[in-house]
UniProtKB/TrEMBL annotation:
It comes from Ewingella americana. The keyword DNA-binding applies. GO terms for molecular function: DNA binding; DNA-binding transcription factor activity. Residues 1-69 form the HTH merR-type domain. The lineage of its organism: Bacteria, Pseudomonadati, Pseudomonadota, Gammaproteobacteria, Enterobacterales. This is HTH-type transcriptional regulator CueR.
Length: 90
């Protein structure tokens, strides 16, 4: 999937996607032989999480924590939900 496909699926702009990559909030995509980014489903999930987190007011630092929690195999789904609900209540 290329960046424009990902932008359509996530509701983010290509610029926002590149920004999140630059900040280390998204797993770096693979690059094709011609240097274009190649995205997978995991990138859609990460970017959707970031979009939703930003919409409810998470800062970039808080998004970093949320993404780390999202990637932690020992976490429970309830942990991510609880953190999100805490932020929404602020």
């Amino acid at each position: 999937m290329n960046i424009s496909d990902v932008a359509k699926k996530t509701g983010l702009t290509s610029k926002a996607i590149r920004f999140y990559e630059e900040k280390g909030l998204v797993t770096a995509p693979m690059r094709s032989d011609n240097g274009y980014r190649t995205y997978a489903q995991k990138h859609i999930e990460e970017l959707t999480l970031l979009r939703q987190a930003r919409q409810v007011g998470f800062t970039l630092d808080e998004c970093q924590e949320l993404v780390a929690l999202f990637h932690n195999p020992d976490r429970h789904s309830a942990d991510v939900k609880a953190r999100t609900l805490e932020k929404a209540a602020e």
